[in-house]
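Researcher: Go.
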Amino acid sequence: MQFRFNKILLTLLLCGVLGASYAQGRYSISEYASLQSAIASLGTAKATLNIDVPTAGYTGTIGDNFTLEFTNIGKITLGMGDALTVNAAIWAAPHQAIFDASCCGVIVISANKSVPEWWLEWWGATGNGTTDDTAAIQAAFTAISHGQTLRML
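Model: Structure:
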């Protein structure tokens, strides 16, 4: 479904139906050396950053001027000691794993009010009864704060 949506969107854009203004302010993580360099380069401009490949996280903050759009196999993976605060809006399928802090990093979204519902699957939980989802669930609980909604498909 997600691939089909992106393909239709690309077709509309190429045919001129949506016009050039749609692409303005949209960037791909592949255009940058790292997530950190993308965020630093784009600064405070309103921007949509498409994360379509596995991307290393860092210690810092992604501001609310960003929208993070996760497509294909896009995911942010944190390393030892990384603490990434995400205040950006997020566009991702509920079933897509978009955060990986299972090794040793921490993702903080407690101040993020732009996403009405957070999905356990975004942290890699499967809920299939076979896989041990403890680390994914713990990472999600660590990231959110009281009053935010956490769901599982």
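Model: The radius of gyration is 16 Å.
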